[in-house]
Each structure stands twice: as C-alpha cells, then as structure tokens.
Design goal:
317 residues; 2 domains; six-stranded mixed sheet; four-stranded antiparallel sheet; 11 helices; binds adenosine-5'-triphosphate; binds magnesium ion; ATP binding; Oligopeptide/dipeptide ABC transporter ATPase; transport
C-alpha cells in the first residue's frame, strides 16, 4: 500500500471573479521513504496540493478527490483525528522560516512544546528531544543555543531549526515547500545535503516542492511537473533530465541556468501563466508551446505513459 495516495485532486477557489481552478485532476502515489519533487512555475498549484494534504486550505476553497494517508482519507477525516495525524506523521516545512517560528519563544520551548502537546512528553523528555534534533540538524553549540530566540540565528540556521521542528515527532512524510528558496546558494546546498542525510537515516518520505529544477536533480527519485494546476509529466528524475517528454518540461530545462565557458545562460519560456478562471478545455500550456498544433487548443490531452501531450515525443523540438 502507498504511504500517500492522491487521486483526482481538484481544488477550486471561490472569488469575486468567479471560480479559480487551481488544481485539476492531480493524481500521484508516494511510497514509504520516497523522494518526490513537485515542480512548476509560480501559480501552478504546488503549495495548494501540500496544503490540501495538510487540511490547511483557505476557507474559500472547494476540494474534490481523495487524499489517502496510510489508507485513511484525509479529506473526510474529523478535525480532531486530522490534527493528531498531521502533527505526528506529516510535517510541513515552509519557505520562510520566520513564519513558522514564534519570535517570542525560545527554541527549546518551541521544539519542546510540539512533543509535550502531541506525545504527552514531560518537560525533561521534551528538552532532551529538542537537544537531539538540534544536534541532528547540526546547530553548533546546540546545548547552549536552546535558550536563544529565533532572531539570534542566521537565516540558514533558522531553516535548520524549522527542519528540526518538523523532525521532532519523527514523521513518516515531510512536505517541504520551497525549503531553500529564501537562502543564498551555498546555504541552499547545505540545507539540501542535510535533508538528504536525514531522509536517508530516518527513511522519511519527502515531497519536495520547488520551481528550481537544479534543486531536484540531486535529491529526488521522481519528479512531477505541474502547469496550470495539471500534471504535465511524471517520471523518474533522471528520465526528466535526459529524455523530457513534454514541451513544458523541455522549456523548463532550457530555463535552468547553465554555466558554459564562464557565461551563465538562462532562457525563460515566453508568454504568461494561464488564466484559471474557466474550467480547462484544452492543454493549458498550448498558448506558450512551441510544438502546439491546432488540436492542442481544442482538446484536453489525457495523461498517458507519464505525460499529458498529444504530440509524439519524437516530433517535439
Ligand atoms: N485563497 C485563494 N483564493 C483564490 N485563489 C487562490 C487562493 N489561494 C491560491 N489561489 C490561486 O491558486 C493558484 C495556485 O496557487 P499555489 O499557491 O498553489 O501556487 P504555487 O505553485 O505554490 O506558486 P509559487 O511558486 O508562487 O508558490 C494560484 O493561481 C493562486 O492565485
Ligand atoms: Mg507556493
């Protein structure tokens, strides 16, 4: 059985301008210990998928489909059970560490409170666990720094603390939403190496959300590419890089900065993201696709053999 199974997930938002079709018919499975990347441009629906799994969608959201974790349907679970489950077994790491940390509480209290609350641990036990995870995420001088407040740490160290907070209940699934985007490149690499090591030690499954294919390459077993709230392509990560099967994936790969002879080349995909106020009736990427033919503007491609595109791979530019 899969650890996480998302089936035909549909997320719409009621707005003054009508319904926004943010996530359309998204399905995927994650096995215990699997590292899956969810990539796509801004607005493609990545965060909403994570929020739906956590039961944290905004109040104007309408959700349909199934999200099963360990066999239980999260979308229909009573709030109390969902709370218990998401604290103990699923952890969410956000992009901005300051939004996950309370500026007025010491690190020890923030970390400790989680285990006291969810596992009924004693103060002393909570302190011990806080120290363990601080050491696991390599905070130097962890024992003394437990008494410090978030602002006394650098951005990279704060993100380590957020990861520590996610780990303290030993979750089976971590949803990491752009965990390194706010950090500079060197620190980004350190945080990804840390996540990788933790993942290997604990066997935690990780859903990594990012718009940066460079981050995906070294970390994830499998990659799912989203556009306009729809899965364009899903494949093992090496295949995504070596033999991308969708024009959008190909475009994204061309947009990864490459350094050749000391020159950084970056190509963006021309055009702008789709208007999502109408239910999709054609390929959402067609207006920006270099390979589009008239049929692409008229029908919604089925997702078949890992890709949603009516053009044969051999014919793509
Ligand atoms: N409460 C809301 N009401 C209306 N629309 C919303 C709401 N929340 C999200 N959306 C829309 O849903 C779509 C998907 O948003 P989402 O946050 O998942 O994007 P994303 O892929 O995470 O982008 P980014 O890379 O910028 O974080 C966007 O078009 C967004 O404007
Ligand atoms: Mg997002």
């Amino acid at each position: 059985m899969s650890l996480l199974s998302v089936e035909n997930l549909q997320i719409r938002f009621r707005t003054g301008d009508g319904l926004v079709h943010a996530v359309n018919d998204v399905s995927f499975d994650m096995a215990e210990g699997q590292k899956l990347a969810l990539v796509g441009e801004s607005g493609s629906g990545k965060s909403q998928i994570a929020l739906a799994i956590m039961g944290l969608l905004a109040r104007n959201a309408e959700v349909a489909g199934k999200v099963r974790f360990d066999g239980r349907d999260l979308l229909s679970l009573p709030a109390s059970q969902l709370n218990a489950l998401r604290a103990a077994q699923i952890a969410l790491i956000f992009q901005d560490p300051m939004s996950s940390l309370n500026p007025y509480m010491t690190i020890e209290r923030q970390l400790g409170e989680v285990v006291e609350l969810h596992e009924g641990a004693s103060r002393a036990e909570a302190r011990k666990r806080a120290l363990e995870v601080m050491e696991a995420v390599r905070i130097p001088d962890a024992r003394n720094r437990l008494r410090a407040y978030p602002h006394e740490f650098s951005g990279g160290m704060r993100q380590r603390i957020v990861i520590a907070m996610a780990l303290i209940c030993r979750p089976r699934l971590i949803l990491a939403d752009e965990p390194t985007t706010a950090l500079d490149v060197t620190v980004q690499a350190q945080i990804m190496a840390l996540l990788d090591e933790i993942q290997r030690d604990l066997g935690t499954a990780v859903l990594l959300i990012t718009h940066d294919l460079g981050v995906v390459a070294g970390f994830c077993d499998d990659t799912m590419v989203l556009y306009g709230g729809r899965v364009m392509e899903a494949a093992p990560t090496p295949a995504i890089f070596d033999a991308p099967g969708h024009p959008y994936t190909r475009g994204l790969l061309r947009a990864v900065p490459r350094i050749t002879d000391g020159n950084v080349t970056l190509s963006a995909i021309p055009g702008s993201p789709p208007n999502q106020t109408a239910a999709p009736r054609a390929c959402p990427f067609a207006p920006r696709c270099v390979d589009a033919i008239p049929a692409c503007h008229e029908m919604l491609p089925d997702f078949r053999e890992g890709r949603a595109c009516i053009r044969p791979v051999e014919e793509l530019t």
